[in-house]
Design brief:
about 30% strand, Membrane integrity-associated transporter subunit PqiC, signal, ABC_trans_aux
Length: about 210
């Protein structure tokens, strides 16, 4: 009996090859246009305020005046994780950069840390405390703009509210500016932090003595 030679695999017809290439082309285009990885940025506030007196080791742990830092208020279009820049009356959101947390949370952490660093005689916290605070700090930021040409501006007002009703409530406000590069998300984050550091310095400078 004669055996038949093994048959060769038939080559796809031209229409089949065209259909296969058409199916693979979109995937190749998508692979070539893959977005860069998203990077996350913080405002640089340390988890534990450097220079602050540790509560467990401090003789002031039970007697230090307590400062309750309320969450910073920001315009709605800013209070998210998007890093944004202003171009005239337009807001441009970064496709590759995000804040590690909502901007209001990061700003609150930074101001809390800066106040704690500067005033080690106080117990400064933005977390709920079991007893009423000696002072309550509220901060309202009405403007926080960084433009493409590197001009940044911040308008804010704040109040230092004593627990003692016989003491006056202290109000203050500031209009701050900063300039630098805004060419990258990291540069925008740096400009934003510089403005908030200025704001924290103003709050510290006006804090009641003693």
């Amino acid at each position: 009996m004669m055996t038949r030679p093994p048959s060769r695999l038939s080559r796809p017809t031209r229409p089949a090859r065209v259909a296969l290439l058409s199916a693979l082309l979109p995937m190749a285009v998508l692979a070539g246009c893959a977005s860069p990885p998203v990077r996350f940025y913080t405002l640089g506030a340390p988890a534990i305020a450097t220079g602050a007196v540790p509560v467990t080791a401090s003789p002031l742990a039970t007697t230090a005046p307590v400062v309750d830092v309320g969450r910073v208020v920001l315009p709605d279009y800013l209070d998210g994780q998007d890093i944004v820049v202003r171009a005239g009356n337009q807001i441009e959101r970064s496709a590759s950069g995000r804040w590690a947390s909502r901007l209001s949370v990061g700003a609150t952490d930074l101001i809390t840390a800066r106040l704690a660093q500067a005033r080690t005689d106080l117990f400064v916290s933005d977390q709920p405390q079991p007893l009423p605070a000696t002072w309550r700090l509220t901060v309202n930021i009405s403007r926080l703009d960084v433009t493409r040409d590197g001009a940044a501006a911040l308008n804010a007002d704040w109040s230092i509210v004593p627990h003692d009703p016989h003491l006056p409530i202290l109000h203050d406000r500031a209009s701050l500016t900063q300039s630098g590069s805004a060419a990258t998300d990291g540069a925008v984050a740096t400009l934003t932090q510089a403005l908030l550091d200025q704001l924290a310095d103003r709050i510290v400078a006006g804090w009641p003595k003693g």
